[in-house]
Amino acid sequence: MMEGKPERTGKVFLVGAGPGDPELITHRGAALLRKADCVIYDRLVNPALLHLTGRRCERIYAGRDEKGRRQLRINRLLVEKGRRHRTVVRLKGGDPALFGRLSEEIDALKGAGIPFEVVPGVSSPWAAAAALGIPLTDRRVSSSVAFVTGHLAAGKRSTIRWRELARGADTLVILMGRAALGRIVRQLRQAGRIAATPVALIRWASTSQQELFVSTLGQVEQDLESWPAFGPPVIVIVGEVVRLAQTLAPEKRKLLEGKKILVTRPASDSAGLLERLQELGATCRTLPAIAVRPRPIPAAEAKDLLARLPEYDWVLFNSHHGVEGLQRLARRFRKDLARTIRGKVCAIGPRTERVVRETGLKVDLVPGDFSTEGIRRVFREIPIRGKRVLIPRSNLAIGDVLAKSLRNRGARVDEIAVYETVPVKISAARVRRAVHGADAVTFTSASTARSFLESIRSAKVPVKSVLNGTAVVAIGPATAKALKEGGVHRFHLPSGSWTIDGLVGAVVDAIGNPSGCGVSRLRRTERGVEAVVRAPSSETVRSIRGT
Predict the structure, then answer these.
(1) Is residue 337 exposed (0-12), middle (13-18) or buried (19+ Cβ within 10 Å)?
(2) Which residues contact residue 239 at a Cβ distance below 8 angstroms, ignoring those fewer than 6 apart?
(3) Which of 53, 128, 44, 51 is nearest to 93 (CA)?
(4) 149 with 99: CB under 8 angstroms?
(5) What's the alpha-carbon Rg for the chain, to the nearest Å?
(6) Comparing 156-170, 227-241, 516-530, which segment has the lowest mean pLDDT?
(7) pLDDT computed for residue 33 by the predictor
(8) Residues 421-470 pLDDT 10s
(9) Burial class of residue 318 in the structure, from the number of CB atoms within 10 Å of its CB (0-12 exposed, 13-18 middle, 19+ buried)
(10) How many CA atoms lie within 13 A of 539 on its CB side?
(11) How far apart are CA 461 and CA 375, in angstroms?
(12) Would you list the DSSP string of 185-217?
């Protein structure tokens, strides 16, 4: 860790973002992103890391420009933002000290009197080698390793001593070497490396798009002619250690490896879905179609509701937001929800049940079908005439089919909006960019589907042209109905329960299961997430994490 001279201005943190997998950023780096006022990030930084920043954080992309003045522009930005903000994060792929032009940015900050700190990151060579089972050193075949850049600054002549490197280091790791690979191979051959020397090219290391290309010095250029799309970012590893990739590399591909999935769930609710998809190897993009926020309830209305809570025979929670909203209301007036509610409690599904239990309440009923329709069906078998029922819910759900059904059977139903579901305005162009290249788009509620499709319709753009063959996956019947009403008639539904795990299983069935078997459900184990796969004659378990 290096520090500049402290001043009264803000401070610039030069942070290593890691090799690509957002989970590989350091704890210190993640903490700085959460408190940052401004983030200046590079092309190779995973966009998922930007979700760690706050709403008011200024995000500046510092990718390449056409005039080749990128570094000078970045230096000026660092000084400008360092003077304006308290905490500025300069987010750089891998480790900032390895071929990251760190010294140039430090010189600019020192010259302007801006305090700085360097926060190391996991460098891409370590991640690339580890992810593919290539040890950079091995006491049997390699006791030395050298790191080289294959990219030179404009107008600069190479000073790399390839002859000495070829003879002096057992393993060579070349960063940014794809474009100059032909020249590098020739120089290594001229320096004495034999044609049979193994070569590995690793692309998008540690991400779900990770690819490995193995050849030899004598054959690699010819082999790559059949794979022209294998372009940057690429790390090249030369040496006998490459042979160990076949014995140490992971045995199986993950079910969603290489797949891109768009998640439209509210940002506050998306973590669980993103985690499950990423554990199966997917690359996720987020485009929240709705936002969920507490509804401001006047004091008189809130006190009246809390006074009536003990009178209800049933309290029906069809979302964890309803539980949290009612709990917020009770805490506001220093009430214990578990002692105030005396009737029976119904929770729509496992997550809502868990949140209810955390308040201290007992859950009396969870329908087998985790949906509003499931609650309707189960209450057909329960005497409800004359009973008082409370449904704490979203402002958009007031008067829905569940409340009508219970009233038709003689129940006295009160609905209270304890939270608001607000559509997020998204331009059709932004929707198109988010969907472009995605293998699937997921919808976890009718409101997300309606808001997403309305964003497209408001621009008078055909829905079919935006989705353009992308698989659409809905969590349950209500969401499917909203999609149909919006003009989407081809979609996938879970074959089991209407839950997040069911949704993920439907995604795997739709785009990620080449074996022809169906994924009936997911389950968590100490090793991560496992998919329970429906085979033609029996049920087998396919382990995901660590394969």
Answers:
(1) buried
(2) 141, 142, 170, 171, 172, 197, 198
(3) 44
(4) yes
(5) 28
(6) 516-530
(7) 93
(8) 999 888 888 888 888 888 999 999 999 999 999 988 887 878 888 887 89
(9) buried
(10) 7
(11) 37
(12) HHHHHHTT--TT-EEEEEESTTSTT-EEEEEET
Count the Cβ atoms, other than its own, within 10 Å of residue 43: 12
Q: What percent of the chain has pLDDT over 70?
A: 88
**Structure tokens of 34?**
């959460």
Instruction: Tell me the one-letter amino acid at 187.
Output: Q
User: Residue 293's beta-bridge partner residues?
Assistant: 420
Tokens at 272, concatenated = 């669980």
Given strand 471-474, what is the order of strands in its sheet?
A: 283-286, 260-263, 440-443, 471-474
The type of residue at 59 is: R
Written as one letter, the residue type at 229 is A
Q: Report pLDDT for 386.
A: 95
Closest by CA position to 136, among listed 289, 240, 42, 55: 240
Contact 541, 533 (CB under 8 A): yes
**Quick check: helix, strand or coil at residue 105?**
helix
Phi, psi for residue 28 in degrees, rounded to 5: -65, -40
500 neighbors 474 (Cβ within 8 angstroms): no
Angle ∠(215,222,44) on CA atoms, nearest 5: 65
Q: What sign results for the dihedral spanned by CA atoms 335, 339, 344, 348?
A: positive
Residue with tokens 């302007």: 112
Mean pLDDT of 507-522: 60
Q: What is the pLDDT of residue 538?
A: 28
Rounded to 10°, the helix 372-379/401-408 angle is: 10
CA distance 355 to 327: 10
pLDDT at 418: 94
Annotate 442-451 with b (16+ C-beta within 10 A) or e (fewer). Answer: bbbbbbbbbb
Give 13's contacts (C-beta < 8 A, 6+ positions apart).
Answer: 32, 36, 87, 88, 89, 90, 116, 117, 118, 119
What does DSSP assign to residue 508?
Answer: I
DSSP reduced 3-state for 492: strand
- Tens of pLDDT, residues 348-394: 988 899 999 999 999 999 988 788 888 988 999 999 999 999 999 99
Average pLDDT score, the chain: 83
Vertex 202 angle, CA 196 and 207, to 5° = 160
pLDDT, residue 373, reads 83
Would you say 62 and 77 are in contact if contact means Cβ atoms under 8 Å apart? yes
- Please say whether the beta carbons of 329 and 306 come within 8 A: yes
For 61-106, the pLDDT digits (tens) are 887 554 446 788 888 999 999 999 999 999 998 898 888 788 889 9
The two structure tokens encoding residue 484: 């149909």
Give the helix/strand (H/E) hosting 13: strand 11-16
Cα distance between the two ends of the chain: 35
CA distance 146 to 299: 69
Q: What is the C-alpha to C-alpha distance for residues 58 and 78, in angstroms, rounded to an integer?
A: 13
